[in-house]
Amino acid sequence: MIEMQDVYKTYSNGVTAASGLTVKIDQGEFVYVVGPSGAGKSTFIKLMYREEKATKGMITVNGINLSTLKNSKVPLLRRNIGVVFQDFKLLPNITVYENVAFALEVIEEQPAAIKKKVMETLDLVGLKHKARMLPTELSGGEQQRVAIARSIVNSPKVVIADEPTGNLDPDTSWEIMNILAEINLRGTTIVMATHNKEVVNTITHRVIAIEGGKIVRDVQKGDYGYES
């Protein structure tokens, strides 16, 4: 599903945030990405959906070579990638339903199909009854569930989550993890950058640790490995 071969990323200020990354993530895996602040975790996952372009090396996602992908084709790539952010990134002036539907409207899905898919997805994340509310009327956990619904409504093959529990209380964090687990059970690959030691150590999955832009640990059923 995702493969990197000797990938480097150096920013315009001279900082090298990825240094010789080589990794393979298979379809259906659930992978935590951990490491100290500033280690290169965000760069690592942004490279996967071409938010950042590698300076050197090759990246393929779902058979698409990101290194040679034209900028005009990036939206096509992202149809098969769902992205969940720490700060939700919802549109505040439209309803929950409209936020999720937007992901289908941009790919010109038929209206009847949009309604069916949006309501099914909101049901999956437990928010079908709040479809007509605005994001500002929801709790932080509910907003994150809307963000997850938006990321999966198009049935992507992979979901990339950047600190999805970072702004949430412990109980709400577990709710979000349960939803991600359900999505993963349905066959979607999950790649999740996180500082949440308790989650990583309790719900064990593959752990990739990054320090100084390099992969220093890659363990199946791993633990967090850092002091929180």
From TrEMBL:
<protein>
    <recommendedName>
        <fullName>Cell division ATP-binding protein FtsE</fullName>
    </recommendedName>
</protein>
<comment type="function">
    <text>Part of the ABC transporter FtsEX involved in cellular division.</text>
</comment>
<dbReference type="InterPro" id="IPR017871">
    <property type="entry name" value="ABC_transporter-like_CS"/>
</dbReference>
<dbReference type="GO" id="GO:0051301">
    <property type="term" value="P:cell division"/>
</dbReference>
<comment type="subunit">
    <text>Homodimer. Forms a membrane-associated complex with FtsX.</text>
</comment>
<dbReference type="InterPro" id="IPR003593">
    <property type="entry name" value="AAA+_ATPase"/>
</dbReference>
<keyword id="KW-0067">ATP-binding</keyword>
<dbReference type="GO" id="GO:0005886">
    <property type="term" value="C:plasma membrane"/>
</dbReference>
<dbReference type="GO" id="GO:0005524">
    <property type="term" value="F:ATP binding"/>
</dbReference>
<dbReference type="InterPro" id="IPR003439">
    <property type="entry name" value="ABC_transporter-like_ATP-bd"/>
</dbReference>
<keyword id="KW-0547">Nucleotide-binding</keyword>
<keyword id="KW-0472">Membrane</keyword>
<feature type="domain" description="ABC transporter">
    <location>
        <begin position="2"/>
        <end position="228"/>
    </location>
</feature>
<keyword id="KW-0132">Cell division</keyword>
<dbReference type="GO" id="GO:0022857">
    <property type="term" value="F:transmembrane transporter activity"/>
</dbReference>
<keyword id="KW-0813">Transport</keyword>
<dbReference type="GO" id="GO:0016887">
    <property type="term" value="F:ATP hydrolysis activity"/>
</dbReference>
<keyword id="KW-0131">Cell cycle</keyword>
<dbReference type="InterPro" id="IPR005286">
    <property type="entry name" value="Cell_div_FtsE"/>
</dbReference>
<dbReference type="Pfam" id="PF00005">
    <property type="entry name" value="ABC_tran"/>
</dbReference>
<dbReference type="InterPro" id="IPR027417">
    <property type="entry name" value="P-loop_NTPase"/>
</dbReference>
<comment type="similarity">
    <text>Belongs to the ABC transporter superfamily.</text>
</comment>
<dbReference type="InterPro" id="IPR015854">
    <property type="entry name" value="ABC_transpr_LolD-like"/>
</dbReference>
<keyword id="KW-1003">Cell membrane</keyword>
